[in-house]
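Sample intake sheet
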Amino acid sequence: MNPVCETGAPSMLTDLWRRRTQLSQDEMASIYKLVKGALRSYHPPELQSLKEDKEELVAQFIYSKVLRLEPGHGESHASEQSAPSSGYAVCTYFRRFLIDCLRSASYQRDVSMELDGIVQQVDAHAHAVDDPVESVLMQYGLDEARVRRLARAFIDDLDKYEQLVLAGTLGWCSGGKGGLFGIATRHHIPSYHYRAVRLGVTLKKSAQSADFAATKIGRWIGGVLGIPISAENQAAILLVLNLLAVESSQTMFSSETHG
């Protein structure tokens, strides 16, 4: 698993989503491809409880909730902030759609949800979807403010070279010329590749989840945040890495401003 979040084209996704009821045929094809790609490796537990297969449910989601082509679904009045800016936000919206499907199926069969707490959990997910970040984190007893606070503490505990390696791969200068090698050269970082592997921002192609779990970032995610390093938690892990990148950018900017 590559722990570094691939940004893809979040700006295109956000733009198309905001104009989703007024798209051309080519733009509809583009948003269909972006949404389907974001959901390709996402398998929430609700899928197991619905009779339709995932491909059909994804198609229904795009038709009714993304493109809003069902009768009675016209112009979207959702705020611009509700437009997803990343793949994990799309996953959150898709999960809410699945929860709605489960509720509908349960109502039609006149079957109640008997497991203690399941209704409250579903309601919490439905309300939290207005903030996709919180919707994902709440599954692990976390919120964005706490994760960012813990991320700052994690970064503060790194030595200056590790902070630069983090910034060069996830943070403010990750898009700079020469990538990590360029950062290492400009800042004279010794053994930069070894530091990157130990930190967890660079992994071998053959690396497994256990390899990432053994890195500094992996131990922080698994031990401090309590998110097990596994494929089913990929959305949460990528979200946490994104927040770590934000804090890395702010930490380095602050140190350069006051340095």
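Comment: The chain has 13 helices and no strands. The chain has two domains: 10-140, 144-258.
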